[in-house]
Amino acid sequence: MSRKFSAFTSTPQTIEAQAPVSRRAVLTGLGILGLGSAAGCTSTFDMPDMGLDTTTTGTIRPQISVDRNITDNGTMYASLNDNGFVVPAIPFDKIKPEFRRQIVVDPTGEAPGTIVVKLNERYLYWVQEGGDAVRYGVGIGKAGFEWNGRAVIQYTKQWPTWTPPKEMIARKPELVKWAAGQPGGLDNPLGARAHYIYKDDQDTGYRVHGSPEWWTIGTQASSGCVRMINQDVIDLYNRVRAAPGKVPIVVA
């Protein structure tokens, strides 16, 4: 009949007699662990085969970066005074959470400093160092008006003038009053900032721009351009402006 014992009640002789190898293994293991602790957990050693599951869990990614411009929604989408224009606060609770500005693990695989627009997702990514990206919700072109490809942001403007193309004036004759350009302002369709997309040094006619129509974010509502919440396009503008040279953009 096997004999049970407690480590706290059995005598040393009983323990030694019943499991001398186990006792030595435990003491040896404790000694090794003690050395590891004393060395700041930097020592390595071979553990005996104890039937443990040693399957790897893969690489665990560090926490995404902290950005003072990615805070709570009330702060990001509050009213602000910008170059003499008072940008209204955005009722962010009426915008789906996934379309609000946030930092995410970069899914694009593009180089840091690249703008990536995912048309099907209605997201724009600003790729950062370290494997993450700032993600914004966007509105995109209606069916038949979309543009996609690789290009560059040739330049940017604050409170830009909007000049409707002739094709748009033909569809909407009431826009003829702006044939020479609509000055920048709160009602301007380009919003607070515009990023001008060029391919092979030619203006594509497409822009990444702000919009007073925040409710169109996440939808297909534009004539082909990528539109953003004004507070978000100002944030993106500050990042693009700080980048050296032309900024690559991928729309797909």
Q: What features would you describe in this structure?
A:
This protein has 252 residues and is α+β, with helices and mostly antiparallel strands. The chain has 2 domains: 1-55, no CATH class; 73-251, L,D-transpeptidase catalytic domain-like (Beta Barrel). Helix content is 19%, strand content 26%. The chain is built from 5 helices and 13 strands. The chain has helices at 12-18, 20-38, 73-76, 166-171, 230-242, and strands at residues 80-82, 85-87, 102-105, 115-118, 123-127, 132-137, 140-141, 149-158, 193-199, 202-211, 220-222, 226-229, 247-251. The strands form 3 sheets. Strands 3-6-5-4-13-8-9-10-12 form a 9-stranded mixed sheet, with helices on one face. Strands 1-2 form a two-stranded antiparallel sheet. The longest helix has 19 residues, at 20-38. It is globular. The model is unreliable at 1-60 (pLDDT under 50).
Summarize the structure in short.
The chain is an alpha+beta fold and 252 residues long. Helix content is 19%, strand content 26%. Mean pLDDT is 82; it is low at 1-60.
